[in-house]
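Run log // design_07
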């Protein structure tokens, strides 16, 4: 009886700790979603908005393919987001948070059922919310990870697509027959192709992980354990789709034009370039390693591992015995949760445990190489692209935390007569919850600053937008624009030559004027004066299939980058 009371007390304590952990990350994500209503165009937003308005969804898709970068899926989604004015980019953060939350919760529940594990819903929710909090707010570019549509389309959305794709694959494999599995394989092929034209960084990351999974599943012992070719075929279909999609992107006229704008002086595989790429990669991980908040993912994984109980399986015997099994210790007996590696040999177990770490390193290095190829020596600082491998890193930390928690629970409950074991277990659980809460508290100033700066910018943008519209209604074709800068994003007048200022050109198109000019007094919007110009707007000259030079831009990574 004392053991049963202790087991129930442990569960209650962990649930209370998880509920305390849910509050702050949940509030931060709610604030981030609500901030969507204060999102206003900046940088690539200007270009996506006017092209969608003037060309339509399919027009901007063709434009990206022919003259920009070849990312047709990225362009199609961009057109959908901007097809209703500001509405799309304002509701996108909420959609991202809700879909990722639902996808991760369902993933944990599905995996738990597969392993015979059962965890309290508050603990599962705490894990999901902490992972999302760290993904959106712990990086170097929180605004771009959640609120800036071009960045989220290219670097946040692909991970969400992968989560739901994996769920559909599992459901089709477990509950569907042959038609469901064939449909799932077709979906993997198509989705892989879409991802290949949506985000080059996530193409690299997902290709490395699923390619490695396919190779592991080809090993005879693993194939016999799985008992089906379906998992291997699904991974292979996704990888084939990635190759098809990336081939479409790489061979597109837009991608060829973009490579011509930044010709590489040397091969990325040359000794000097490899040295520079490795140096950039080390700096990226030095920055990530210095962000201790990411330990929150390990902590909530540990909390989840401690809270897992077994799902009793039917056994022969009396009803009393069955009832006792349901309340039995979750580390042994008929109600025990199955070990994720089952009866694998020790060598295979350690191999599978360690394999994700080098895969994460390889995929992140591939992203860094692409950033350097696309943006030069400062490419590694484009923190929004890090989201593509930070997401699997956070999931990996959760998995390791769960395994450590399971091992701790097994050892600390092995002998119920040892008086120190249960307090030690409580201490581990409370320390895990405290670490997660500390990580959330550490990120509160980040959310607070993002909130205040976004609201202030939205108010200034609305005033300026109304003023410019009044001027254009009175016939002005040259208007004054005061840059409203979001850190690390481009605004007009970032370069001295107006002919090369793609942001200024896109703002001029957005307001349907000939050009924009700097304010005479940058410190005061109220003092600026606009001289109306009534000359007809000249049509820019361009070669067939390509926009004028002053409108051409090297995307600044906004529509996906590398």
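design_07 sequence
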């Amino acid at each position: 009886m004392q053991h049963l009371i202790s087991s129930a007390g442990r569960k209650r304590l962990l649930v209370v700790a998880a509920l305390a952990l849910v509050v702050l990350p949940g509030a931060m994500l709610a604030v981030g979603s609500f901030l969507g209503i204060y999102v206003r165009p900046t940088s690539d937003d200007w270009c996506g908005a006017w092209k969608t308005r003037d060309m339509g969804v399919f027009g901007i898709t063709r434009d990206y393919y022919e003259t920009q970068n070849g990312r047709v899926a990225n362009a199609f989604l961009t057109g959908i987001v901007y097809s209703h004015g500001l509405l799309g980019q304002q509701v996108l953060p909420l959609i991202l948070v809700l879909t990722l939350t639902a996808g991760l919760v369902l993933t944990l529940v599905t995996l738990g059922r597969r392993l015979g594990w059962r965890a309290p819903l508050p603990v599962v929710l705490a894990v999901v919310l902490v992972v999302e909090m760290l993904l959106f707010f712990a990086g170097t570019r929180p605004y771009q990870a959640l609120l800036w549509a071009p960045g989220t389309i290219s670097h946040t959305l692909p991970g969400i697509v992968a989560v739901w794709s994996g769920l559909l694959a599992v459901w089709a494999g477990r509950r569907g027959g042959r038609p469901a599995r064939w449909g799932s394989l077709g979906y993997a092929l198509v989705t892989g192709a879409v991802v290949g034209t949506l985000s080059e960084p996530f193409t690299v990351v997902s290709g490395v992980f699923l390619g490695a999974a396919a190779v592991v599943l080809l090993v005879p012992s693993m194939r016999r354990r799985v008992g089906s070719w379906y998992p291997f075929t699904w991974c292979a279909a996704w990888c084939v789709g990635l190759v098809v999609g990336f081939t479409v992107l790489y061979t597109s006229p837009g991608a060829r034009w973009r490579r011509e704008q930044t010709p590489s002086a040397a091969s990325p595989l040359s000794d000097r370039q490899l040295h520079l790429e490795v140096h950039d990669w080390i700096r990226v991980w030095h920055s990530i390693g210095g962000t201790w908040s990411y330990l929150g993912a390990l902590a909530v994984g540990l909390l989840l591992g401690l809270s897992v109980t077994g799902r009793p399986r039917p056994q022969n015997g009396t009803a009393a015995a069955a009832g006792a099994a349901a309340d039995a210790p979750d580390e042994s007996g008929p109600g025990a949760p199955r070990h994720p590696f089952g009866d694998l040999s020790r060598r295979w177990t350690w191999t599978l445990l360690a394999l994700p770490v080098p895969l994460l390193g390889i995929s992140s290095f591939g992203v860094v190489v692409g950033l350097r190829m696309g943006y030069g020596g400062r490419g590694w600082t484009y923190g929004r692209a890090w989201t593509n491998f930070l997401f699997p890193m956070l999931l990996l930390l959760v998995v390791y935390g769960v395994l450590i928690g399971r091992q701790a629970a097994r050892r600390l409950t092995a002998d119920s007569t040892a008086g120190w074991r249960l307090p030690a277990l409580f201490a581990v659980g409370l320390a895990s919850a405290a670490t997660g809460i500390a990580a959330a508290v550490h990120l509160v100033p980040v959310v607070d600053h993002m909130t205040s700066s976004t609201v202030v910018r939205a108010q200034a943008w609305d005033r300026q937008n109304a003023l410019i519209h009044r001027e254009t209604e009175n016939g002005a074709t040259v208007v004054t624009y005061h840059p409203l800068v979001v850190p690390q994003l481009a605004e007009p007048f970032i370069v001295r030559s107006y002919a090369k200022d793609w942001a200024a050109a896109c703002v001029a198109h957005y307001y349907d004027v000939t050009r924009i000019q700097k304010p005479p007094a940058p410190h005061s919007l109220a003092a600026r004066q606009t001289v109306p110009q009534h000359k007809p707007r000249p049509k820019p000259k361009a070669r067939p299939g390509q926009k004028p030079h002053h409108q051409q831009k090297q995307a600044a990574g906004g529509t996906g980058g590398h």
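The chain has one domain: 2-312+324-456.
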